[in-house]
Amino acid sequence: MFVKPLAFFRFLYPSLIWKKAGSKKIWLTFDDGPTPEVTEFILSVLKSEKILATFFLVGKDILKNQLIYQKIKADGHTIGNHTNSHLNGWKTSSKKYIQDIEKCQELMKENVLFRPPYGKITSRQILSLKKKYKLILWDILSYDFKEKNPTKLKNNILENISDGSIVVFHNNKKSYEILKKTLKNIIIELKGMGYSFSSSW
Ligand SMILES: [Zn+2]
After folding, report:
1. What string of H, E and C letters represents the secondary structure of 29-50?
2. Which of 118, 143, 170, 185 is most buried, by the most CB atoms less than 10 A from its CB?
3. Digit-coded pLDDT (tens) for 134-179
4. 86 included as an active-site residue
5. Ligand 1: distance of its center to the CA of 82 in Å?
6. Which of 31, 32, 100, 139 is flagged as catalytic?
7. Domains and CATH numbers, the chain
8. For the whole model, what pTM was predicted?
9. Catalytic site residue 31?
């Protein structure tokens, strides 16, 4: 599994943000949702560890779960746009893709962040979106949607993390089981390694 994105992609898309600069700080991000139960679980862990994260949310799920959406914001976390219908940019015309993003954006007017679902976005889409949004990819993919072994999931993150890393978790049902077993522990271990957590971009 490629925990880190291939250097080739990072070279190809220099206007995307893959990693932040800065000393001993990391950015935890959660894609998808809001999702009942799962989001509430994540929020409770973040609150008990007193850290802030960034949530890349899907417009149609915000509409279904408005109270949870309000709670994410009330807890002080940063929100970002993840399209209205979780579209794959490689399989969608740029016009339709941008329209879908704008639909989600109407629900989060103050937002300036965008993360493409599946990390799949075309050069043309990047060109048109980067005028309005910071396009956030990642440095560390947790594989919480696929990995079943809690120790492996944790070690993948701890062994690959470095100053300025952007870590991706998922705020959906697929990742819930493994996050219940690992999320709090991962945060505690990262703190033990001297890292602090940022949600400012
Ligand atoms: Zn997603």
Report:
1. EEECCCCCCHHHHHHHHHHHCC
2. 170
3. 999 999 999 999 999 999 999 999 999 999 999 999 999 999 999 9
4. no
5. 7
6. 31
7. 7-196 (3.20.20.370)
8. 0.94
9. yes
